[in-house]
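Write out this protein's structure.
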Amino acid sequence: MELQRCFTSDWSSDPRHNYGVTLHASSYMPLLEILGMDESAFRRRIAVNGSLGGNGNIESKSMVNPGQVVSTSFRANREKFENLLREGLDVRWGYSLERAEQTSSGTALYFQNEEQLESLCVVGADGPHSNTRKSLSPNTPFGILPYVAFNGKRKVKRALFDNIYAPAFNDSNVLEMKLDDLILNIFINEQQAIIVSVSWIFSRPARGSTDPLHKPNRPVSGATYIPDEFFDEVETLSGLSQPFKEVFDAEKLRMERVLHWLMRSVLVKQQELYTLAKKGVFFMGDSVHAEPILGGEGANNAITDGIELAKCISACGPSGILSWYEARYRVWERGIRNSEKAIIAMHNSQKAAL
């Protein structure tokens, strides 16, 4: 089956995914034959420090809970990875899906630019907030785990990075620090000669139902509302080594764009997937089995889903996807359970009840 067109929910071709993701060999090695690349070339092409000759190395000793990270795992820049995968494809920008509806002849897709498309076969791969899933499986709920998480990005000048950040990172691209049940993370997103992009995460278990930093029922649009209590809590942190002291400076954070993350999980019921599949609607990746951002393996699972689904369609056509669901569903269930266990182990929180 040849892919003729690919519609993206991005409104322009400007980079929106300039951040790092951890890739494991179990998911990226099967891609290499398809891409016609060897492992070293692949890693240099998309590693967060690839432009400077690096391979995205991660030192497990720099992590609080390495989880599945092994010597072949590495940090990739998502935008570079997407650019590599898009080569040779006809990608149409500006198609943000508003809703999907079943019709007598297939599925109609309605986009926010007032265009629409009808197809006999639709694959929903539009992430955890999938409008395909919300339209056609509206009763599938999110699970919200009892954890607080805030995230931000920062561009650091090379001189400052070399002086304060680099000595701590050493040969890694990930740094983590634990203070009781609070975890501070710093990741390299992309290294360039003059500027280094980094991301940070502040996470801990929720302190009960009155925790001002835990808002499990907030709308998606509420991710940019950051209560003053977050900055107050950052100000109480003491004894931080560099570069944590530099990054988690409350005054600097007040001047930056900070996001409030919810640790969401979702899994569409197997029977409902079968029912929709018979109508020509299929799902893969986070749109059908989302794991929480912390402790989850969303990027790797999506890669594996894509490869395995393509093999299935190539061999059996869309009618074979029911058997693909049968084979993958237990893997998805296990992945969500393991991700929830991982976030508990990461924060060493025996009090968090899932």
